[in-house]
Amino acid sequence: MDLISVIIPIYNVEPYLERCVESVRNQTYSNLEIILVDDQSPDDCPQMCDEYAQKDSRIKVIHKKNGGLGYARNSGLELINGKYVTFIDSDDWISETHIENLYNAVDRTNSDVAIGGHTSVCADGEKRVYTSNLEYRTYENEDLKENVLFAMLGSDLSLEYDVQISCSCCMNLYRTDVILKNNLKFNSEREAISEDMVFNLDFFNYCQKVVSVDETGYFYFTNPKSISRRYEPKGFDRTLKFYTEINKRVEKYGFRSGIGYRFDRTFLMMIRVHIKHLVASDLPKKKKIEQIRKILNDKMVVDVLVSYPINAYTGSIRIFTKLMCGKKVHIVYTFTKLRVLADNMKLTRNALKLIGIGKHR
Question: How many CA atoms lie within 13 A of 77 on its CB side?
């Protein structure tokens, strides 16, 4: 059995840490090196990590100065000895056969990475399964670029949904020597949003073979306190930096002619998400309007909106994008406010169902 490294960055997740670590310890594939990276967590997580290391010899603990998720993963990569490595966020967990299923696929096909799906779990217990949206087979050469790498950058215009393939690193099993040979690192999410896509763009450019797996035993907890689900004042600047970083790599690797509008579509989706978080925040309405105006007048946003084929969108997204393009600041605010209210009503209905209220009767 090949050694597999599992890197778990940890910050302020005391209520969830046991669930996460125990799910890894109880894997049917037992030849694991489990690296817990304490990113200067302010709760009892540092002590919990040390206690785990005392009762399981497979566990290593790193205590480091707080630097964010991306840099915590990098600290783990500096210690790995496994032939393969996977990543798990510390408020998530995995089924007992998750790693074995990924390993069997990557070993059987001699691939550099196995791509899996996941199961999203809401705080109210509602679950939804997401496959990888790939055929379950191997991909190589141009087939790998066109059907995996380019799809990871964003959806084709012909598709209704914005995300064709998840860019998360957590559902995949990577061959370590590809990472070490090419000195691959994660960017800081504090500087550029979506450090996973940057890492994957580098990895999938250098790897030779990919296998897609029918495996959804990664349980992604939609934590309402997660950084990806709340308004961040620097979020817009981080999104612009992310757009710049990805485009640098697209030029470096010679992908420009192949990706079309895929990444622009991802960028516009991220701008919509940022506006939604902004409108849902506790900021005064005046500040929200000011920020929306700043976003819609930003040169990078304007350039993408002007060049993007907006009519390829359907329904409300097409309307909303045209409002953005026309810099209709107040209408964009109102449109988003209604969406936030609708989402909150859905959450309330789900909560009522959980306690037996609102059922059909």
Answer: 22
Burial 222-259 (b: 16+ CB within 10 A, else e): bbeeeeeeebbeebbebbbebbebbbeebeebebeeeb
| Residues found in the chain | 361
CB atoms within 10 A of CB 345: 10
* Residues with Cβ within 8 Å of residue 248, at least 6 apart in sequence: none
| Residues of the chain under the 70 pLDDT cut | 192, 223-229, 345-361
pTM above 0.70, yes or no: yes
pLDDT tens string 181-235? 999 999 877 776 778 999 999 999 999 999 999 999 999 998 655 544 578 888 9
Angle between helices 329-354 and 285-297 (to 10 degrees): 120
Query: Which residues does 300 contact at the CB level (< 8 Å), separation at least 6?
Result: 240, 243
CB 139 within 8 A of CB 212: yes
Does residue 10 contact residue 17 with C-beta atoms inside 8 Å?
A: yes
Q: Which two tokens stand for residue 6?
A: 């599992």
The rounded distance, in Å, linking the Cα atoms of 214 and 136 is 7
Q: Which domains does the chain have, with CATH numbers?
A: 4-228 (3.90.550.10), 230-353 (no CATH)
Q: Give the 3-state secondary structure of residue 89.
A: coil
